[in-house]
Amino acid sequence: IAGVASRAPGARGVGGAVDNSFYDAAFTLRPNEQLADSPVVVLGIDQASLDTIDALTNGRWPWPRGFYGMVAKKLEAMGAKAVVLDLLLSERSKDGVDDDEALAEMLDGLRMPFVGGVSGADGKFAVPVTRPVPLGDTSIYGEREKADAYREYLPITDRGDSLALAGIRAAGFEPRIATDRPFLLRYYGPHRDADGRAPFPSYAIAKLIVQVIEEHSGNDVSAEQGFNPELVKDRIVIIGPLAAGLHDLKSTPVSQLYPGVEIHATAMLNLIRGQQVALVSSVLVTALSVLGALWVAAGVILRRAAWAKVGCIALAVLGLVFASGGLMQLNAMRWLPLTEPLLAATLASVGSLLWVYKVEDARARALLQAIGQCISPQVASELAEDPSGLTVGGRRVELTILFTDLQGFTDLTERLREGIEPVLNLYLAEMSKQAFGRNGTIDKYIGDAMMVFWNAPVSQAHHAKLACEAALSLVEREREISPMLTALGAPNCRTRIGIHTGPVIVGFFGSRERLTYTAVGDSVNIAARLEPSNKIYGTQILVSHETAEACGEAMLFRPIDRLRVYGRTEQVGVYELIGPRENASADQLWLVEQSARAAQAYLARRWEDCLAMMDEVLARFPEDGPARVWKGRVASYLKNPPGDDWDGVWEQTTK
C-alpha cells in the first residue's frame, strides 16, 4: 500500500519534498572534500575579475569575445587538455563582426579541444568558425522543468550531449556512468567552506587575461605576477561565471547559492571517475518498508505500555532515517529514499493503533459488562467513557474495604427456613443501594454479608470518607426498613461493619471459563476481621487507624483499642465511627475526648484513673459497650496486673 501510495501522482510532490529534505540534510553532514588532484579546474569570472577587467573595457559587459580566444590560446600553450566555455554565444557580438571573427580565427588555430556552450534544442553557436567546435548543452536539466534544487544531472539532453559530457569526450575521456538517464550528482562540498575554500581548484580569470594582454603588448610578466601553468596542465579548464551579478547561481543540496559552472565541473568529475549517488534498489526499499512496518505493528500490538508502543514507532523511524543518512556518508554514496518506508511505518502505526484500540476497547467493554452489576451507575458511566481501567490481571492500589454481617443470621435462617428468601432479598437490595449511593464496588455477597470497596476500578480521591458515609447510610437504612423486616419475620436486625484502608491487588481473577473482579491481600483480611470484632465491644461500625487517618477531620472517631485480630501478628488501631464531625453533638464530642483520655491512662497503667473515667462514661451512657469492656478489663488488671512485656494490645482469639 505504501509503495503504491508513494508513487501516486498526488503523493509524489509531498513524498519528493520529504525525500529531498532528508537527502539535502544527509549531504550537509558529509565532510568537505578537497580535490587538489582534480582533472577538472574552474577558471571563474568572479566579482574581482569583473572589477579588474572593468578598467580595460570601461565597465562593459559582456566582455569582448576575443578575450576568450586569447585565454584559450594561452591555456593551450600552458598544456591544458581542453577548454570548456560555460557562456552562451548564441547571438552576434555587440562589438561587431570583427569581434566574432577574431574569436573564430583563434579557435580555428587551436589544436587543443574547445567546447562551446549552447542552450536547448534550438541553441546556436554564433561564432563563424571554419573548424567545427564541439558543443554542449548548458541546461542542466535539458528541456525538463527545473526542480527546487539541482540534485540530478542529465548527460544527454534533447539538444544532445550536455556541456559536461561534451567536455570530457573532447578531452579524450569516456564516461563511467550511464548517459541514457539522469544521475544523482555527487557534490564534493559547498561552493565555499567556512575558510573560503572551494572543493575544485578554482582561479580568477582576470589574472590570466591581464597576463595575456601584457604579453600581447610586449611587456614581460614575471613568474610571480603571471598565472602558473602547472595549475592547468593536463586538465580540463571550464570557464564560467561565479559572480552573483551574472545570474548563474543555483540552489543545490550543499549550497543555496552554487555557480552553474561548478555544477558542470562536478558532473564532469563524476562522469570521469564514475562517481555518483547511487539509488538503493527498489526491491531493497520495499523489503525495508515491509520490515519496518512489521516491526512497528509487532511493537504496537504486543507491547502493553503506551511508552513502549511509541518507542517502537520512534525506533523504526529513527532507524530508517539513520540508515539512509549513514549510507550517504559512505565513500560509495548510496541514497535510500524514505517516503515509502516512512509511509509504510506510518500506515502500520495507525493501523496497529486502531486495531489495538478496537480489540482493547472491545475487551474492556466486555469486562465492563461483566462488572456492571457490581458498580454504581456513576462509576459505570466513567468506565464507559474510559474503559482503560479494566484489564485482565491485577494491579496494586490502595483501597478502602468494607465488610458487613447480619447479626444472628444463622439462627434466623434456621427459624424461617424458606421464609428467609424475601428477608434476604429485601435486606441485600437496600444495603446495596447504600453502597452504590456512595459509588462503592460490590465485590461479592456471602450469604447475608457484603464485601464492598472503593478506589477501583476508577480512582476516587476520598475513598475512605465514601466508605464511612456508606457505613452510616447502611445503619440508617437498616433502621428505616426494620418494620418491613419485622413483618417478614426478622425483628431486631443489626448489621456489624468493619472498614480498613490499605494496599491490595485488585483486578479480574479466575479461570478462562470464569473471571471475577475482586481484591485480594492482607488489607482485605484486616477489614474482614474488624467486622466480627464488633461483638467484643458491642459496637456496630469499627474502622482501622489507617481509615480514620485517611478521613482526616471529616469524620468523628472514638478510640477503642489496640487489637491483634485473629490470624495476624501485627496490631491494628481500632476506632468506632461516630459520624460526620460537623454534625456531632456535645455528648458525642465529650465521649470521644473522654475515651482518648482513658486510653492514655490505660496504656500508662494508671488503672484507677482509667476505671474512674469509664464510670463517668457509664454514668452518662449506661449501655455503652466499649466502656463496659474496658471497665471489666481494667478491674481484672487491678487484681492481676499484666507483666512487664505488656504492650496494651488485646489478642482476638476467634474470628
Structural account:
α3 (47-57) runs parallel beside α7 (205-216), α4 runs parallel beside α5 and α20 (607-620) runs antiparallel to α21 (625-639). The chain starts with a helix and ends with a strand. The chain is an alpha/beta fold and 655 residues long. Strands 13, 14, 15, 16, 17, 18, 19, 20 and 21 form a 9-stranded mixed sheet that branches. It has a 6-stranded parallel sheet with strand order 4-3-2-8-1-7, with helices on both faces. A two-stranded antiparallel sheet has the order 5-6. The radius of gyration is 48 Å and the shape is rod-shaped.
Name the features.
alpha/beta; 18% strand; 21 helices; 655 residues; rod-shaped; 21 strands; 6-stranded parallel β-sheet; 46% helix; 9-stranded mixed β-sheet; single chain
